[in-house]
Amino acid sequence: MPDRSALLDDFLGQPVVIDLTSPYVCIGTLADADAAFFDLRDADLHDLRDGRSTREIYVFDSARLGVRRNRDRVLIRRDEVVALTRLADVSEA
């Protein structure tokens, strides 16, 4: 797909963490991406204001304990994304 960077090829089909500019983080399996959206399946879209946990602790706990799935599918606008990381690459700081 011409709208997707070849850098994303290794991420497709993998559980990923998407850090957003807002106080949200999304963790799920990257199904596809185009110029406008990342398409995640079996995802956890989490508002960090709903708990006391920091972004780093929430993501680390998800990597350690598993994804707390609350969405079958989520489209994330690429212009809202700060970072995209494979969940397997999350490490304890």
List keywords for this structure.
93 residues, SH3 type barrels, 5-stranded antiparallel β-sheet, 12% helix, mainly beta
Folded structure, characterized:
With 93 residues, this protein is mainly beta. The chain has one domain (6-88): SH3 type barrels (Roll), CATH 2.30.30. Helix content is 12%, strand content 43%. The protein is built from 1 helix and 5 strands, in the order βββαββ. It has one helix at residues 55-65; strands at 15-20, 24-33, 37-47, 71-77, 81-86. The protein has a 5-stranded antiparallel beta sheet, with helices on one face. It is globular and about 35 Å long.
Mean pLDDT over the residues: 92
Determine Rg (CA atoms, Å).
12 Å
**Proportion of residues in β-strands:** 35-45%
Contiguous low-pLDDT stretches (5 residues minimum) are: none
Question: Topology of this structure?
Answer:
Blueprint: E1 15-20, E2 24-33, E3 37-47, H1 55-65, E4 71-77, E5 81-86
Antiparallel strand pairs: 1-2, 1-5, 2-3, 3-4
